[in-house]
Amino acid sequence: MSEQEKQTGREAQMSNIKAAMNVAETVRSTLGPSGMDKLLTNGNHHIVTNDGVTVLRELDTAHPGAQMMVEASQTQEAVCKDGTTSVVVLAGQMLALSQGLLMRGIHPRVILRSFQAGKSLALEHLESQDIDIIDAAKTALRGKAAESDLEYAADLCLQACTKADGNLDHIRVITQAGGSLGDSYVQDGLVINKEFSNEVEDKSMEGDLNILLLNGGLEGYDFNEVQMQVENMQQLHELKQQELGMLSELASMVAGAVGPQGVVFVRDGVHEAVAHYLSQHGIPLVTRLQQSDMEGLSRLLGVPIYHRIVDVDEPIMASNASVKQERIGDLDFVTVSGEGEATCLVVRGATRQTIEEYERAFDDAIGVTCLAMKDGGKGFPGGGASFSAASMTVREHASTQPNMTARERMCLEAYADALEIIPAAIANNAGMDPLDVVMELRSAEQGVGLFIDDRGVGEICNTLEQGVVEPESLVKQVISSATEVATAILRIDDIMAMKEQQNGMVG
Ligand code: ADP
Ligand code: MG
User: Fold this and answer.
1) Which whole-number Å values give the CA distances from 291 to 33, 105, 296, 311, 433, in the listed order?
2) Which terminus of the chain has a smaller tally of CB atoms within 10 A, N or C?
3) How far is the CA of 307 from the centre of ligand 2 (A)?
4) What is the pTM of this model?
5) Is 41 part of the annotated catalytic residue set?
């Protein structure tokens, strides 16, 4: 926030709107298949990305108005995985056009009400169609790095989502540097980016296994954390002995808990004495797992996650399971399968930057594919077609509805105009004249949008026939989130710096 403690009324409103519009401006050039990439850098780490939410996450947004836009994009990411740029671009345009309305002296409340009405109209009248689910995956991948092998990448998404029955929670995307995108594959079960932490002879276990998932560590005393007065070496030695005693008790409890055919997965670290004891008993150990891996294992193997070893009172069996350390490419991984559902997409690529961008692209595309399955294969033609259609509905309503004030009509028309920013930005990024495209779309029939072909050449046509489609709920979510955040920003007419927070949020 700026130096002044408090901004009120028009000033606060305008500064919020401006900040939010700046955010939209930042990501607008990445929208669509011809969108440009951004290079984000902090000096030593670089990210090359085309993904709106990733750009925004790394952006230093201190202003509350900007922050709200970032949050809207994060919500979109959480709900749909894709459409994160669209939300921000659309909300930005709604705000840009409200600026004009405010300047003309229209009360924010009238704008708010009309925008809400516009949203309801748009959502009500959008008619979804049957789409090919793989097309939704391809559309999400377009313009991202994974585009080079579009067919193959889209097929991987479909494979993973089909295996997981459209359940996004059951799919993990993991990356493995080396090879190329064409070496990526889908595998049943979980692939964990780890090796066994202890030496065991048998690196492959199958059948009914005893699995211990421990949400903590198996460590000794932390001498860094406690302050102790040790008078002589003898005392230190005794302390170490005591620790070893405790550790061996711990180790035998763990070994006892899992018994033969056991495997231990631990969230935190494990003392080497415990690891060694477990090796001697032929029990493989995997340590420092991510929380998401722990949860995935629990679901896949049908075993609970324990917080303390003393809570384990009966053998924890996972039937028909397998835990193996396998070499994939040139690295070792722990692969796990079980009776539960889990599917892994292993993404490969040459450099860390490309692989990270592939991972983001697959994250989006898998999310979209699952969404399309959940929507029962219903969706809309892409390339701005649905936004243009929604815009026409709203505009028509504005001109035909009799009981509306002139001001409301103006606001509703502004809302309709704002929706057209999606095809306009896609056109602009492809080097076309946005106004020409928007005008042409206005006179076209439903389902017609802007299709950008592989060479980057644009054509006004039925984008569904070109395989550019989006799931129904994705488009609807974009329209509602954008309207929500734009109206939320318009509603604020006071910014106060909270005392306790330096660069405070809205109070
Ligand atoms: P977002 O983060 O909002 O998903 P993207 O950069 O992925 O942003 O762009 C998505 C937009 O690009 C959607 O409106 C989609 O319909 C459009 N799009 C994707 N492929 C094409 C294409 N080949 N031609 C025209 N528009 C496309
Ligand atoms: Mg996208």
Assistant:
1) 35, 53, 9, 19, 48
2) C
3) 39
4) 0.80
5) no
